[in-house]
Design goal:
Layout: H1 6-22, H2 27-38, H3 47-63, H4 68-82, E1 102-107, E2 110-116, E3 121-123, E4 126-128, H5 131-139, H6 145-148
Antiparallel strand pairs: 1-2, 2-3, 3-4
Helix pairs in contact: 1-3, 2-3
Length: 159
């Protein structure tokens, strides 16, 4: 039989009570709770948004937030999705070839050459942090950049 840590159990009950209480609050009360927990004005009047974000914040305060490394990785992924060309740290992927490698792909009768750099990729004189951003620029639609350029991981985890 598993033993229960009474302090951790009490903390869980407290967090659950706080989460349940959000459902009973008015929009004005949710906005006040937002101000006390977030230190700013609530961004909108959507009950669902306020409840979900406040619920996350309550759990974050009770149990701790994201690890700094994870938060940095999520920021980098968001930058890649938004196609931002500049990023200090690149998301490492075992499919990324060594710097200097040239990737060639034909698309709609045009040959596209990408050079792998130390900090990302270069295509048409412009630096990119992800192959996905380049594939999107070439095709106009979202692609997994590694798939677009034919880079895959072997079944054993190698290149």
């Amino acid at each position: 039989m598993q033993s229960i840590n009474p302090v951790a159990h009490a903390s869980q009950i407290t967090a659950l009570a706080k989460l349940a209480a959000l459902k009973r609050l008015s929009i004005a009360d949710l906005k006040e709770r937002w101000r006390s927990l977030m230190g700013s004005e609530a961004p909108n009047n959507s009950r669902s948004f306020l409840e979900h974000r406040l619920g996350y914040r309550i759990q974050e305060l009770e149990r701790g937030g994201l690890d700094k490394r994870v938060a940095k990785l999520l920021d980098a992924i968001a930058d890649e999705i938004e196609g931002k060309p500049v990023r200090v740290a690149m998301i490492l992927d075992s499919r990324t070839p060594v710097a200097g490698t040239r990737l060639v792909r034909e698309w709609n009768g045009t040959e596209h050459t990408v050079t792998v750099t130390r900090d990302g990729f270069e295509w048409q004189g412009r630096n990119y942090k992800s192959l996905s951003a380049i594939a999107r620029a070439i095709t106009g639609t979202r692609w997994n950049g590694y798939r677009f350029f034919g880079l895959r991981v072997s079944r054993r985890g190698g290149r």
